[in-house]
């Protein structure tokens, strides 16, 4: 068995062949066993802590399941960690959310450092009290250092404490080299960082997650500078750039396998886009000629310029947000009391962030809630906690120590030349201020903004943005930040106009100054002409009336004036999106991005997890069709637990369906889940990035094998994403192999025009209305029609009001759009006849630019 995060390790530290032996753990309680996946808590169900099983207890004293040493008894008395003689770490956690009981109902029978034997009492608890005060009595037995376990064999059914074996572990053990066995300090060979932008947030997070799988203390060192390799913030704080020479230093019982696993991944770029081996360390300084262009400035005293962060227009009056510093006391109580205060504050902050995640999922794209999941990760960052703990040990208060920790790290990040990393400093300040407010009893809420506010601030945190009262705040501009900041992402998800990097003189504006904020152009117009204000207000009122009319007719079908029916369905990223689409007139799901199941976790989802999610969405749709796209990662979408091989051009490498064919165990698991969920529902399966007929034939063969293994009767309809020009050119041949096509216009555009859709200089030119792209869409429809198959569009073009009539005219049968766009797209279809659409499409194919095509369908606002 290879270490986690492995691959073909090439470190000079050799690891000898591994032998396997078995240990048995007796039941620590009388009760009924339950798989971890069925525990109603994502931390345990998704095995974030580790693998094991759960017990529904029938007794009230937790017993030692084997001999070992107690290494930790949680201060709340609800959990205990035991290390076996073989080095296996067992965490036993009584109940769910029981930490909130602050020790009530629990009586620990041991202390850290105690040696116990099988059957010794560890914790007594009052089951009646827990049943009425906790979320659940389910008790989890989890192996937290799973890299040392080759296989888990849990018992099923009723077990008796101290008598029945509840979990058998096959241990992966080997005779490591002498240094590792003795816990000596090991240093890897030097690695040249290949990442084009250095170890920014994504590769740093991958490294930290991989390092956390090992017991050893692991450092990343560049010259005389070191950082904890398990700390995202600490890694980013080193500002490691492309070409820097680093080594990994490991100390502990599994130091050798840790280096063997981590060094190749570090050398390969940790799955980062564009990483190639660097020929030599870079030691050059940035010259004045290479300095970035200065921020935009306006010569017009009535116009302030910034960076477009979130599109839209807003007319209102300036209200400046000035945040007061939170005062803290330097000296504290005894260190153990201060540490407990910090732990309590961190726990409460986690709960608050979970509530913010839920709130954001309810009002916007659920993917944006992942920002606050990242904030939760920062709360447990060992780099921050080490600094705070050191200060507390020296007699400082928890508040003083915590402020020093997050401020130092935030300042370190803010000084970096890498803009992406520098913008993450704001996230760290947000988390830090939240905990500091809890420690000092300071309310986080700011004074309410007046009506019709255009908010001006030095900077906003993601929490500030998510909490904005949108009945009063019409838009905002910040001196700090940029278009890639989390604040900008949230603003776009909330449809709130925003400008980042506004000229600093914005903070000198008087409250109440009338302004027009243009989030699309990145500008703030001061004291605008009354006629201009009236024009903007009239336009916004007209658009509001149109949106209300579209919403009122949302449940009507999308039928052209001469009777052509177009199916309008939703692009979704989870169950909440599916539910939100129905009252907006959604007629099904044209694209379920299954990636949401694979993100923000340390291992791929199981077949049962996927089946449960797919089935739940199908139930919500109540007979409406749903297309599930199989896992589409690679290129610009790596997974932390699935590092991609080093590629010169990842966008032309192992991505989309190619990963499924390269790692068939992942694809087969997903296919089985979809086939099972498809029984009794209108489910279709779609494969991304298909470029050759061999690829689709291989996938079809795999699907048939899994269908036969499951004994599923009816076949699920199969389709492909048309994202590669080759698939459009050979559309008729592909149509003989599949049941439908769905055109992904975003990727089809970038591959057709050879323009990266995320490139800062080229993205604006990568317009899917380019006639070359439209020609490929026309070819796709013609090939499908010749074989009696239908074509949908699920890319961004389907939601573009200027594109809708042209797509209908080209023969597209289905438009799969963002959830908020459904009513408007259906209204746009009804505004034309099929004959008009066909005439527009014919004209569009003869144009010489995207601009010329767009001129054919002028917007009346």
Task: Indicate the mean pLDDT.
Answer: 80
Low-confidence stretches: 1-20, 174-182, 273-295, 363-368
Broad structural category: alpha/beta
* Largest sheet properties: 8 strands, antiparallel
Taking all Cα atoms into account, the compactness measure Rg is 29 Å
Give the strand order, joined by hyphens, for the main sheet: 9-5-6-7-11-3-2-13
Indicate the overall shape.
Answer: globular
Strand content: 15-25%
Could you write a compact summary of the structure shown?
With 861 residues, the protein is α/β, with parallel strands linked by helices. The chain is built from 27 helices and 36 strands.
Report on the structure:
- With 861 residues, this protein is an alpha/beta fold.
- It has an 8-stranded antiparallel beta sheet with strand order 9-5-6-7-11-3-2-13. An 8-stranded mixed beta sheet has the order 20-27-26-22-23-24-25-21. The chain has an 8-stranded parallel β-barrel with strand order 29-30-31-32-33-34-35-36, surrounded by 7 helices.
- The longest helix is centred in the middle third of the chain and has 29 residues.
- The chain is globular.
- The termini are far apart.
- The N terminus is likely disordered.
Name its key features.
disordered N terminus; alpha/beta; 861 residues; single chain; 27 helices; eight-stranded antiparallel β-sheet; 21% strand; globular; eight-stranded mixed β-sheet
Question: What's the helix and strand layout?
Answer:
Elements: E1 18-26, E2 31-34, H1 42-45, E3 51-57, E4 61-63, E5 68-73, E6 79-83, E7 89-96, E8 106-108, E9 115-116, E10 121-125, H2 127-133, E11 136-143, E12 149-154, E13 158-159, E14 165-174, H3 178-181, E15 185-187, E16 191-192, H4 201-211, E17 217-222, E18 225-228, H5 232-237, E19 245-251, H6 255-267, E20 303-305, E21 307-310, E22 313-321, H7 335-363, H8 370-379, H9 382-393, H10 398-414, H11 419-440, E23 453-457, H12 462-467, E24 473-478, H13 486-493, E25 498-500, E26 514-518, E27 523-526, H14 530-552, E28 558-559, E29 565-572, H15 575-581, E30 589-593, H16 607-621, E31 626-629, H17 657-662, H18 664-678, E32 683-687, H19 693-710, E33 717-722, H20 725-729, H21 731-735, E34 740-743, H22 745-753, H23 771-786, E35 790-793, H24 804-810, E36 814-818, H25 822-830, H26 834-844, H27 850-855
Parallel strand pairs: 22-23, 23-24, 24-25, 29-30, 29-36, 30-31, 31-32, 32-33, 33-34, 34-35, 35-36
Antiparallel strand pairs: 1-14, 2-3, 2-13, 3-11, 4-10, 5-6, 5-9, 6-7, 7-11, 8-10, 12-14, 15-19, 16-19, 17-18, 17-19, 20-27, 21-25, 22-26, 26-27, 28-29
């Amino acid at each position: 068995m290879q270490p986690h995060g492995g691959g073909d390790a090439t470190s000079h530290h050799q690891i000898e062949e591994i032998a396997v032996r078995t240990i048995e753990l007796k039941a620590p309680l009388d009760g009924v066993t339950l798989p971890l996946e069925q525990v109603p808590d994502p931390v345990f169900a998704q095995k974030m802590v580790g693998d094991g099983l759960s017990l529904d207890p029938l007794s009230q004293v937790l017993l030692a399941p084997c001999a070992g040493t107690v290494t930790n008894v949680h201060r709340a008395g609800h959990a205990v960690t035991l290390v076996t003689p073989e080095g296996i770490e067992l965490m036993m956690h009584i109940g769910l959310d029981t930490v909130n009981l602050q020790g009530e109902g629990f009586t620990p029978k041991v202390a850290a450092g105690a040696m116990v034997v099988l059957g010794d009492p560890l914790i007594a608890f009052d089951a009646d009290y827990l049943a009425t005060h906790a979320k659940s009595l389910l008790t989890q037995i989890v192996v937290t250092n799973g890299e040392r376990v080759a296989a888990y064999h849990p018992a099923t059914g009723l077990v008796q404490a101290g008598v029945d074996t509840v979990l058998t572990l096959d241990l992966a053990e080997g005779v490591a080299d002498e240094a590792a066995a003795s816990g000596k300090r090991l240093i890897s060979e030097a690695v040249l960082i290949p990442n084009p932008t250095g170890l920014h947030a994504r590769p740093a997070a991958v490294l930290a997650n991989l390092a956390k799988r090992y017991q050893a203390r692991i450092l990343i060192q560049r010259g005389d500078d070191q950082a904890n390799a398990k700390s995202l913030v600490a890694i980013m704080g080193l500002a490691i750039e492309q070409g820097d020479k680093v080594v990994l230093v490991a100390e502990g019982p599994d130091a050798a396998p840790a280096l063997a696993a981590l060094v190749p991944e570090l050398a390969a770029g940790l799955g980062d886009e564009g990483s190639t081996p660097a020929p030599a360390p870079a030691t050059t300084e940035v010259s004045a000629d290479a300095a970035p262009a200065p921020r935009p400035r306006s010569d017009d005293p009535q116009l302030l310029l910034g960076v477009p962060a979130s599109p839209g227009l807003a007319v209102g009056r300036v209200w400046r947000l000035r945040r007061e510093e939170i005062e803290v006391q330097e000296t504290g109580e005894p260190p153990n009391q201060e540490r407990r205060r910090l732990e309590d504050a961190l726990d409460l902050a986690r709960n608050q962030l979970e509530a913010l995640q839920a709130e954001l999922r309810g009002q916007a794209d659920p993917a944006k809630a992942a920002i606050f999941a990242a904030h939760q990760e920062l709360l447990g960052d060992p780099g921050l906690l080490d600094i705070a703990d050191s200060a507390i040990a020296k007699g400082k208060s928890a508040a003083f120590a915590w402020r020093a920790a997050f401020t130092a790290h935030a300042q370190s990040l803010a000084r970096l030349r890498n803009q992406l990393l520098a913008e993450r400093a704001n996230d760290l300040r947000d988390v830090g201020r939240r905990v500091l407010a809890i420690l000092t009893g300071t309310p986080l809420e700011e004074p309410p903004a007046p009506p019709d506010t255009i908010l001006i601030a030095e900077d906003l945190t993601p929490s500030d943005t998510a909490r904005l009262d949108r009945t009063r705040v019409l838009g905002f501009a910040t001196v700090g930040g940029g278009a890639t900041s989390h604040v900008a992402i949230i603003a776009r998800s909330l449809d709130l106009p925003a400008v980042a990097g506004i000229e600093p003189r914005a903070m000198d504006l008087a409250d109440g100054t009338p302004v027009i904020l243009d989030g699309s152009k990145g500008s703030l117009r001061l004291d605008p002409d009354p006629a201009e204000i009236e024009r903007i207000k009239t336009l916004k009122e007209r658009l509001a009336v149109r949106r209300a009319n579209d919403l009122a007719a949302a449940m009507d079908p999308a039928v052209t004036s001469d009777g052509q029916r177009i199916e309008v369905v939703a692009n979704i990223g989870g169950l909440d999106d599916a539910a939100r689409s129905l009252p907006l007139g959604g007629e099904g799901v044209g694209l379920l991005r299954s990636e949401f199941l694979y993100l923000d976790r340390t291992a791929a989802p199981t077949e049962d997890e996927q089946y449960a999610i797919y089935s739940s969405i199908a139930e919500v749709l109540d007979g409406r069709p749903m297309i599930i796209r199989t896992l589409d990662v690679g290129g610009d979408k790596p997974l932390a637990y699935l590092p991609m091989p080093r590629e010169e051009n990842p966008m032309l490498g192992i991505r989309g369906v190619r990963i499924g064919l390269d790692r068939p165990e992942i694809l087969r698991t997903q296919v089985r889940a979809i086939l099972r969920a498809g029984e009794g529902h209108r489910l279709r399966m779609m494969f991304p990035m298909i470029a050759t007929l061999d690829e689709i034939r291989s996938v079809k063969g795999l699907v048939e094998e899994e269908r036969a293994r499951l004994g599923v009767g009816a076949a699920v309809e199969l389709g492909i994403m048309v994202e590669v020009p080759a698939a459009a050119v050979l559309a008729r041949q592909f149509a003989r192999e599949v049941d439908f096509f769905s055109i992904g216009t975003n990727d089809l555009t970038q591959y057709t025009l050879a323009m990266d859709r995320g490139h800062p200089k080229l993205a604006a030119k990568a317009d899917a209305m380019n006639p070359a792209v439209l020609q490929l869409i026309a070819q796709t429809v013609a090939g499908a029609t010749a074989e009696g198959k239908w074509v949908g569009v699920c890319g961004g073009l389907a939601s573009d009001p200027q594109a809708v009539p042209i797509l209908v005219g080209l023969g597209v049968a289905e438009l799969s759009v963002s959830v908020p766009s459904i009513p408007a797209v259906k209204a746009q279809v009804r505004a034309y006849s099929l004959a008009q659409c066909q005439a527009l499409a014919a004209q569009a194919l003869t144009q010489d630019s995207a601009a010329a095509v767009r001129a054919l369908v002028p917007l009346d606002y």
